[in-house]
């Protein structure tokens, strides 16, 4: 196990009706807040009304930044910073999934930065101070409600970049599983795939002696497998929604990666797909994952894939380890198909002409992956196989 | 899943050599500290020297309270409070295992309480303010390094009582697995049994829909089973020590019990044993656990024990569920025996004459246990079976 410094200070208020804590928690930081959210869904399902009524009743002044994109754009971040500066905002409250929360985080960090906000996305060392951030989660997927990261897209430069800073972690997040009851079938599926991908990015590491972390990763994968499809078929199944929601937070808050070497691989590849094509993040991850697995499967990785097959997919441990590994990869693909996610990039509109450019961008900071790092040739090969 | 409020703010500095962070972390709170520790082991193995050299080099003044008992006594707590008051201590630093940390926590809480410290142990509502607490862990067992609880014994009244307050949680803890290399064989075993018991107290709950938490509990149990005996046989096996150390913290910091009904059962029984006989806590837990399991095994609990057997002990899922449950209980006993812990209370000096009194004390606040609560008759029956 590698050395690590653990710090997960976000308070979580979990469960039905927990929105009631919001006014008192906000008042610990001030009385002027910016609401950051996406489309009109929170108005249709009553969440917006729940929240703003509580704010009004408690004399909390709020401004609004709506229309945050599924892949939030730097132009939207800039708008939010302007509202915060003009109104001396005390706290940025995201309502939504990862898009809104990521956007809120970078607004909060940009507030204190004198230059253009894109500078801090490209170089987190330029962040010195961050406004308090909090979130009300309405989609189980990115885990942004309990981590330090945000991902912002610049459509001018076709860049989608992740930025992290310890002070960007939400001070608190409200997780009410009933707030995800209205999440559409396809988004429930994509969210589940995103959670599973976060877990696998931590699980398939070169660090071999983090037994505890690996068993916990398997625990979370089994949770996603048990409830992903169920939540699609029974959108108001509280047990399914609650387990997926809590899994989304624990998958990426550090618990699974502390003590392990970490170098993500499928995420950087997918970031290029959605930077160029604006496809759904979780769908891109689910399509790429099994091709990536097949590509890196060899004598140096087969034991890990066999472990994955035995412990996650209950494959008979007495079989040949390559058979177990290949069956595990097949089962991973089948599960994503069960979530009604296609198996090919061409099915989501991706064409051959930009594959080389996207592959180059994927590895612009160096090789990606921990268990078996890959470079340009590897990424391009995976893209072509997946097409 | 039940509603919950999650907050685990303790910072963890984990790994070999992490003691180097100590002076800078202490200085965030002040420059006058009280060291709280047990016997002379930290002087023999060099940990005391490591720490005090760092303090002196950084002009941090320290006072010392040594001789904290394995079951820390209220008389020792009172001594610590007196030292803190006389010297305007800024932070209480425990060096050791649960005994020292528990003692430090109650000293820190008692510092601001005007009456006698035993009052706050008996009624945590009397705690209003707590001095900052931190720890350097030298024994993987109680998880006190990352939770809000302390257990204090009053030998005058034969009471051993747990007290918890959110502000009693350590601000930070240093977990260097090499600091546990010199832990004797028997204490390594008892510590592992203690960790396993914490996990099982959370696992065997009446809440059935906390799938995620149950899979994580199994992950931690498998970690203990994989490394407990190994750490006894190879005391300087870093991988084993590291996995056990991190398991000790995660077992009881709330992660496994958030969202579940919680009412501990084997711990309150064991607390009476060690209040009356001063036996090793982990040994008492390990002896009692399988007898408690057998006692509550019936149609209402058999599914949970079968799940335990299949997921933790790899028992063939196609067998009859009572056979799986009984085999799982046997395997639990066999594992504790493998840790060289006896199977009978009489083997650790416990006599029949006080069983009734201890059983009455175990349930003085009401029935104990969550999966299937038990009262006086149940506890007495378990004690007699275990004798």
Task: Give an overview of the whole structure.
The structure is a homodimer of 387-residue chains. With 387 residues, the first copy, chain A, is of the alpha/beta class. Chain A folds into two domains: 11-179, 3-Layer(aba) Sandwich (Rossmann fold); 184-386, Dehydroquinate synthase-like - alpha domain (Dehydroquinate synthase-like, alpha domain, Up-down Bundle), CATH 1.20.1090. In chain A, 49% of the residues lie in helices and 13% in strands. Chain A is built from 15 helices and eight strands. A six-stranded parallel beta sheet of chain A has the order 1-8-5-4-2-3, sandwiched between helices. In chain A, strand 6 and strand 7 form a beta hairpin. In chain A, helix 4 crosses helix 5, helix 10 packs across helix 14 (355-362) and helix 12 (302-313) crosses helix 13. The radius of gyration of chain A is 20 Å and the shape is globular. The model of chain A has no long low-confidence stretch (mean pLDDT 96).
Q: TL;DR?
A:
2 copies of one chain form a homodimer. Helix content of chain A is 49%, strand content 13%.
Layout of strands and helices, then pairs:
The structure is a homodimer of 387-residue chains.
Chain A: E1 4-14, H1 22-27, E2 32-37, H2 41-44, H3 47-57, E3 61-65, H4 74-87, E4 91-96, H5 98-110, H6 117-122, E5 133-137, E6 149-154, E7 159-164, E8 172-175, H7 185-203, H8 211-233, H9 238-252, H10 266-277, H11 281-296, H12 302-313, H13 321-338, H14 355-362, H15 376-386
Parallel strand pairs in A: 1-8, 2-3, 2-4, 4-5, 5-8
Antiparallel strand pairs in A: 6-7
Helix pairs in contact in A: 4-5, 7-8, 7-9, 7-11, 8-9, 8-12, 10-11, 10-14, 11-13, 11-15, 12-13, 14-15
Protein name (chains A, B): Alcohol dehydrogenase (NADP(+))
Domain Fe-containing alcohol dehydrogenase-like C-terminal (chains A, B): 188-386
EC number (chains A, B): 1.1.1.2, 1.1.1.-
């Amino acid at each position: 196990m590698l050395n690590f410094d653990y710090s997960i200070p976000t308070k979580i208020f979990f469960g039905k009706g927990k929105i009631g804590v919001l006014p008192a928690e906000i008042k610990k930081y001030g009385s002027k807040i910016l609401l950051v959210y996406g489309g009109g869904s929170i108005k249709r399902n009553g969440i917006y009304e729940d929240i703003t009524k509580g704010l009004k009743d408690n004399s909390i002044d709020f401004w609004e930044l709506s229309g945050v994109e599924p892949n939030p754009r730097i132009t939207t971040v800039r708008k939010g910073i302007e509202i915060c500066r003009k109104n001396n905002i005390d706290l940025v409250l995201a309502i939504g999934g990862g898009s809104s929360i990521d956007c809120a985080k970078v607004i909060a960090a940009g507030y204190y930065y004198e230059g253009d906000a894109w500078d801090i996305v490209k170089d987190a060392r330029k962040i010195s101070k961050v406004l308090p951030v909090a979130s009300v989660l309405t989609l189980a997927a990115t885990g942004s409600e309990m981590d330090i990261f945000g991902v912002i897209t610049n459509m001018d430069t076709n860049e989608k970049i992740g930025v992290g800073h310890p002070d960007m972690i939400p001070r608190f997040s409200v997780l009410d599983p009933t707030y995800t009851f209205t999440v559409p079938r396809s988004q429930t599926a994509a969210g589940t795939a995103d959670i599973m991908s976060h877990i696998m990015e931590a699980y398939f590491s070169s660090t071999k002696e983090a037994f505890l972390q690996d068993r916990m990763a398997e625990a979370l994968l089994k949770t996603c497998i048990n409830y992903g499809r169920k939540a699609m078929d029974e959108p108001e199944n509280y047990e399914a929604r609650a387990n997926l929601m809590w899994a989304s937070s624990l998958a990426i808050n550090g618990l699974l990666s502390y003590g392990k070497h970490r170098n993500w691989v499928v995420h950087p590849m997918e970031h290029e797909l959605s930077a160029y094509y604006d496809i759904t993040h979780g769908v891109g991850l689910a399509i790429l994952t099994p091709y990536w697995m097949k590509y890196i499967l060899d004598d140096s990785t087969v034991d890990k894939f066999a472990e994955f097959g035995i412990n996650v997919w209950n494959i008979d441990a007495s079989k040949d380890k390559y058979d177990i590994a290949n069956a595990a990869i097949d089962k991973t693909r089948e599960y994503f198909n069960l979530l009604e996610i296609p198996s090919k990039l061409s099915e989501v509109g991706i064409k051959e002409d930009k594959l080389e450019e996207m592959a180059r961008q994927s590895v612009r900071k160096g090789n990606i992956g921990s268990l078996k790092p890959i470079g340009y040739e590897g990424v391009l090969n995976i893209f072509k196989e997946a097409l």
